[in-house]
Amino acid sequence: MQQAGIQANQATFASVLRVCASLEYVNQGEGIHEEIIRRGFQADIIVVNALVDMYSKCGVVNIARDLFDKMPQRNVVSWTTVIVGYAQNGCEEQAIQLFEQMQLTDAKPNAKTFASVLSACANLGALERGMEIHREAMRSGYQSDVSVGNALVDMYSKCGSIDDARALFNEICERNVISWTTMIAGYVKNGYFDEAWNLFQEMPERNVVSWTAMIAGCAQNGYIDEALELFQDMPKRNVVSWNAMLAGYAQNGYGEEALRFFCQMQLAGVKPNSKTFASVLKACSDLADRELGMGIHGKIVRSGFQSDLFVENTVIDMYAKCASIENARKEFDRMLHPDVVSWNAMIAGYAQNGLVNEAFNLFLKMPDRDVISWTAIIAGYAQNGKGDEAMKLFQQMQQSGTKLNRDTIASVLSACANLAALEQGKQIHEEMVRNGIESDVFVGSALLDMYAKCGNIEIAHKLFDKMSPRNVVAWTAMIVGYAMHGRCKEALNFFEQMQRSGVRPNPVTFLGVLSACCHAGLVDEGRLYFNYMYQHYHITPTVEHYGCMIDLLGRAGHLDEAWEFINKMGLKPDATAWMSLLGACRIYNNVRLGECAAQRLFELDSQNAAPYILLSNIYAEAGRRDDTEKVRKMMRDSRLRKEPGCSWIEVNK
Length: 653
What we know:
Radius of gyration: 28 Å
Structural class: mainly alpha
Largest sheet: none
Helix content: over 70%
Strand content: under 5%
Shape: globular
């Protein structure tokens, strides 16, 4: 057309931009943008709306918003396009804020606007705000619209109000496959698998989307075996079906299975897309396999997805979780148009690697912050033992007017748990009640974990009894809580109940179980559970699991077995494992193994006084005064001394 000398008009540009948007060809779209400026169409509302749509669908929402802000005039399409872009690119808070701004103008939301902002509320778990938008949709006469009805079902389902979701589903006059699919996914997400299955059987017609939704719902909620069975029964599969199963494996911690499934997908001739690579990268992250992650990164580059913002952000996350923070930062600095998700991923990466100062410095440089940015830095401080700083940042977040989401609350509750700050935890509990998210299983699990770790196990138990459904985090919090407080019988009873309920334990669950066995001196049971973890659930023991077993065996006097356990564990023992063995040698006065354990500790950290003191005591008990004096001289020469003990208590301020 250009070679023929035919001049493009607004309709031409809009059509070409729609093609770029559908194919996510951002580079070509940028070229068209330059041509639009040269032709003088940069103020045309139809052309600019198409540009905003193209950048949004290509994941470059910051440029889309910049174009929107500079528009001399806007219509409902302009507003809706940016809201949709935010909602689809993980910027839910901005989507809701822009919708609220739109309501102050003459532009009236349409069905697509309502559906998109309700989707944002759903993903945030923002029930109260979703209900406000529901009322606004009713006033505007859009509740009978099937797309709005579907979005309402999705919002109520994801916010845990499954009965309201079903009531709205029943009110939809002309249900389509999305209606059925959304309701099925809602049931599965909330743990009502039987209801989901029955509704799936009732569907008047099933297509690849409905099958995939059922698979995704099962997989995302831990029903991996059921998801695989459905996948194998599918009459026809597409890349979305494969991705649903792959994401299920990755999201449930089955990294090795996810990678094997990815190989099967390639052998089946299915071409991976950005979501495929995101799940595979997550599997690499969970396995902390940097070499494999780098290999997948290379495949992404060769497949032409290196400029996909969604994939780029996942690459940053992968490198950070594989402790390759330099590569993560290199990818971040290479990005042409980092969005708020990119910044958040880099901040979280620094925090996960213990670099909270670097995380905070980057947080201060952010051009725009959302609730996820605040949550990432708060969680970083909380997870690195800086609960006081986390609480101060939480107060600053509240003062900034940023609305909380469930992840923020979970992070702050974690900080309260680590600080044993019961009164502050109770205040957060009250905030949850005011925001209507007390029943959310995610924050509910964090809440009962806080009460359990702060010593109020009875309140934790009451909260647990009220929860429906109960996820693995809730069960694990109760098991760990009882184990922490020496109530080992209750902890193991909870574990047995958990298995009978069909909830699959995770590695942290078994840490709680082994800890309970350790405190109660249940050696045979501890051996049984340790082997059961791998043989039945295929959970590979970590150094923490081995540490629990070494502590258990050592406390019971099985020192030689504990020594063999350390040497056969297949992982490099950490200081905790050696300290457990050394402490047991002190109790049972085993000089030979005590010397071996102490030597390993000296190699790991020569400035820690504890192993010197324990070894000195072992020698003293054995009557080896010369060796005792020798160890004490080593301490004096190294200027080491015993740190005084301390305890934390919470006082009223």
